[in-house]
Write a structure and sequence with these properties.
two-stranded antiparallel ribbon; alpha/beta; 2 domains; Helicase, Ruva Protein, domain 3; about 20% strand; about 30% helix; disordered C terminus; seven-stranded mixed sheet; Rossmann fold; 10 helices
Amino acid sequence: MVRAKKRFGQHFLNANAIAERIAGSLTHHGNYRRVLEIGPGTGALTRFLLPRTDIDLTCVELDDEAAAHLRAAFPELGDRLRTGDVLRMDLSRIGEGPMAIIGNFPYNISTQIVFQVLAHRDRVMEVIGMFQKEVADRLRAAPGSRTYGITSILTQAYYNVDQLMVVEPGSFTPPPKVRSAVVRLQRNGTVKLDCDEPRFFAMVKQAFNQRRKTLHNALKGFPGLGERMPDRFRKQRAEQLSVADFVDLVNACIPGDGLDGSQRTA
């Protein structure tokens, strides 16, 4: 028996019907074959993914005890089971071509996994993930809602977001203190935003980091913007703006003015 470890944010799914439904939610959107399972734990999803002949499965597990269990339970995984921290891995080294990511994501790194996906958005066509429901709600929140924030707008810039199911605490060992939700992200048709993308990421983060302020104040000092901000945005707050609105704001900036390397990362 694998012991759930708090430091890894582990809550092992123990409901076979839910695990089977999650594993069956992969749609091949974007014509991928390669699937990366993050945090397989005791193998609740793995047992339903491995028999599928339409995918090439790779698993990444950080917990050595869980990895040993998986090797014993699923010897057919072989070298397709990798140990280590997925947040430190170069996903470009996991096979070639389009791919999907699936997993009962550890709640303490689930938002970081989303940013890892965004960094590899040209390759990751679909994500099926178990999230704390609060995080799932943020991913699919609409402009104007209290849960709309940085992860909402950056994710929705490149992915369509749908909630597939809500999962109650009793479906996990140990039960978490929160409800969970399974979310599907599917790559939308935006190959590239119609603006400077690094500047877009930087602007969204700065605006939402001061979300109680009007944009006139929250974006003071933003490189290239200054008094060029269109009047219609000055009294608005970040949570009121759509992806298209932020694109317009970025395009109001002086082209090529002033983002350093740290600001130009997703």
